[in-house]
């Protein structure tokens, strides 16, 4: 148990903290009804201002006023609900500590099969086994050993009572806490059933119920602990220690003690302890825990690295840019935990339904035990679906059937069916580089009918690059790049950066001296080289200079160039040459003087290798419409749309136009997911049912504004996200309806005498709880496809 004094704001005039937050591990609080019982107990403590209970992580964050209560009182309230607080302090006044300490993010792993509860269960199971042996097989040795109120107790009876004491008392104790907190839950129902059966001498039923239910509880604890493992694995990615350079020496310290600006050393095979920037060294870094990238990424000086990533090869020195608690990995873990607290529509339905279901079945159980013996004087034969059933009016028969209905009244499997699916889906996504900020978004993404994709930075890389260098006349590629780069050195336009990068790749560095540089707004640039004025810019700029480019920009049907085409300025390029480049969505920059064209350089924002296959995969998975939205011109938009295979595109859109486009898609197709960069597309992301941000790693704005964040720049994760969400919705529906269906069938079979207490526990409670948990865990087996164009 730990505290975080700064978790809740508020200070007095003297600057002292007015509220503290105790962050506690409560491993046995593993279902919504458990949390409800704890919540009711906490509500009775004066001074508690807020409580966030998370059964899926087994944690309780309780904010309280230290002037009115203490952390010890908070712990006592939780224990008063029947749940143990693990790792807590019993000392009074712990809440007066001034230092901030780490909180509990998830309950520690449980020793389920060797716990005190397990040992009592195994003892009870041994007693039941021996009791059944004497009751049904060694009847001659089943002697009377005592009597109570003239009721003889045989060896088997004593063994059954021993089983009730060993395995049943913990259940009855939990039922007592349920009564105390006015919570109609499974502990109360099972405790009542055990006491009632024992009280009227049905020792076999009482012992069997106590042992089977205890085994069911252990199995459910084990299943929930397995579900929590996925989140524990995520949390274990963050290193505990860092090697820091201080005063010229390497010092190993806890990661939370490293300040921003310090330099950490990362050797081959080590995890990077904190977010930072490489200042020395180069290496391949496996950052799949953060971004989900399938291959290591080369890192050199100036590159960002993330806490939890693994240094594969070289030595790195990293300047820390965020503290341990503020790293990208820490924010991912925090958001995953917060996501589990947001109830989906399915969970809300289950909560409402169970509120009616349990009381109704309890009433039916009471009526089943009480009414038939009063109204059935003689045995009655009834034909049901061709099968004959005889109903007798004896109290013993109907009491056991009422007892069985009490067991079936527990909605445990039904209630946990959605939370375990959400936990499995969200944590699995996080380990694959997809951050889903709530179960409601997990559900919504699986129901979308149309996906709207931003172009720049989503379908394309968002980085301009030279794709074609087309010299004319006697000009070589080197000469063309040398003149173009010489002009562009003074420009800060992204096109200039692309041309300079291409010149560097081609080892062109002997740039001519430039003077008289001038930017021609919206057209290009010009400057003097060796006393002659050179230009670089759009074809329209050179048309203003007197060049006739109409034939080279005219789209043709593939015919040949006229023989005299090369004898004039307009024949410097082959017919249709510029039009062909523009049709491919490329920006064309011409370079030349007032009298001579040196050539053309084509520049484009490259389409991501996985974009085409991602769109195809979305269609295969059932997405009805995939639409590209862009602010680019019609020609570029059309070229990219054709290349990636979207159903339609909309070009020359301002941010408000993208909002209108999303609303039109919603009106025509239904629910829409918008995928963008999380910043420029914020209005459209907010308008769609689900907003998905690309490349959110290291981007605070994208992490905060989007409903779902793809941590890496990998559009290939989008089909995985849809597949996971769509499958999760199916799993949730399967769990809910299977739970209800099995309960209904069992309930119908009880009055007919077809369902025993043991069958109700094994199938209706234990079996279904394990079934829904196992079904939910298969979501973790869904993995992203590696979508690349061949």
UniProtKB/TrEMBL annotation:
Q: Where are the transmembrane segments?
A: 121-138, 158-176, 188-216, 356-377, 398-416, 736-763
| Keyword Membrane carried by entry | yes
Supply the EC number(s).
7.2.2.8
Protein name, per record: P-type Cu(+) transporter
Q: Where in the cell is it found?
A: Endomembrane system
Q: Which Pfam families match?
A: E1-E2_ATPase, HMA, Hydrolase
Q: Which family does it belong to?
A: Belongs to the cation transport ATPase (P-type) (TC 3.A.3) family. Type IB subfamily.
